[in-house]
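Thought: the user wants the 3D structure for the chain below. I'll pass the sequence to the structure tool as-is, report back what it returns, then summarize two notable features.
Action: structure_tool
Action Input:
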Amino acid sequence: MTASNRHKLSQPIDPPEVPTVEIVSPTRRDEVRAAMAVVASLRDHGVPIRDIVVVVRDLDAYEEPLFRAAIQYELTPVFWTQLRVTRTRPYALIEAVCDVLDEERVDVETLLRPLELCWSLRSTPGRDEQSVSTTCQWPIDPATVSRVMERLPDGTRTIPEWVDVIKSTGDADGRFQRFVEWIDDAPMPEPESVSTLLGDVIEGYAEHGLPETKAGDSPALLETETDARAVVRVRTLVRQLRHKFADRLEEGTVDQSWGDVANLASVIATQRPGRREHSNARALDVLEANDVWALDVPYVVVLGLTADQWPRPPESVLPPEFQEAVLQGDGQSGLLAPQPAWIGGRDRDQFTDALRAAGQCAVVTRYTQTREGNEVQPSPLLGYINTERVGETDRERLISADRRLPPEIRGFVTAETEDCDE
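Observation:
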C-alpha cells in the first residue's frame, strides 16, 4: 500500500452527475434557515415535497433547529430516524420494574425507581369510585418520591418487608402502598404474565406519564413526540417479548426470572428494525446520512459540511501522531494496517451516497462560526467536488421576507415546474 493510497484508502470521490450548489452561512441557525428556505422556494416553484429530501450526518445537533425552521416556512418535517428506544423513559420504566421483581431483596432506590420514571396504576373499567379517584392522581410527582425516599430506612429488604415499612410510614393518598402491593402481587414470569404485567405498565404510562411529558415540554413538543414513539415501540416490544420468552424457555436458553426477561427485552430493543418510524407523503423527509443509500430523488439538501462534523473526528486511544505515521507507511510503520475510520471512510461513503441520491440538483450547506464566534473550517470532503457557491446577497434574499430562490439553484428547476409557476 502506497503512502498516497494509505491516506485515501479508496479511490477519489466520483463527482456527482448533477450540479452541486454550495450555500455558506455565518452560523448553524442561519444554515438551517437557508436550507429550509431552499425547500420552501422549490415548493413555491411547483416541486412536489416528495421530490425533496434533507440529509444530515447526525440528527442530534440538527433536529430541533430544523424543526423550528421548517415550522417557520410552513413545512411539516418528518425525521426518519430509528428510535433509540433504550434511551427513552418508557423503556427505562419497563427495565426498572423488571429489576425490582428480579431481586429477592432490594434497596429503596431500586424499589422506588419505577415511580421516578412515572409508573402509574392503569385505569381499567369496573373499578369502584374510590379506586378511580386514586388512579387519577398518577404519576407521583418527583418531589414527593424524593421526600418519601428520604424518610424510608436504608438497607435491603424483601418486598413483603417493604410493604410493612411503607404501611408504618404512611402516605396521605396511599399511592406508595398501592405500588409496593402491586409489586408484591406480581406473578412469576411466564410468557402470558410477562405480556400482561408489562403491558399494564406501558399502558399506565401512556395514560398518565405521557401527559406529564407534554405538560413540561417545549412548544416544539419534540420530547412528547419521542415519548409517544417510544410508547408505540415498547408496546410492540412487549408483544414480541411474550413469544420470544416462550421460545427461549422451551429451548432452555433462559431462566424463568425477571432478570432474563429484562435481558431479552434489551436484545429485542437494540435490534435495528428494517422500517421507519413515520410515514407521511405530505411531509418533508429529513434523513440521517447512513439512511440515504440507494435513494433516488430530484433534489437533495445536505447540511453540516464542516470539518468537525463531516467527517467526524475518529475516537481512538491511539495518539494522532501514531495514526499519521501508520497512514504515511514509512519504515516499519508500513507493516501496520491503518484503520479506515482514521480518515473518515464511512463518512466519505455516506457523503457520496447523499450526492448520488440527487437526480436534478444537490445543495450542500455549511456554517463558518460557532455561537462564541470561533471559526469553523469547511469539510475536507468538499475539496473532492466542484460546487457553485451562492453569493451572500442571494443567500440573504433567500431567507428574506421576499424569499427568492438563488439563480444557481433556480436554473435547475425543471421547465415543467417553471411553467406551472408562471
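Final Answer: Structure generated. The longest strand covers residues 358-367. The chain has two domains: 3-82+278-421, 87-269.
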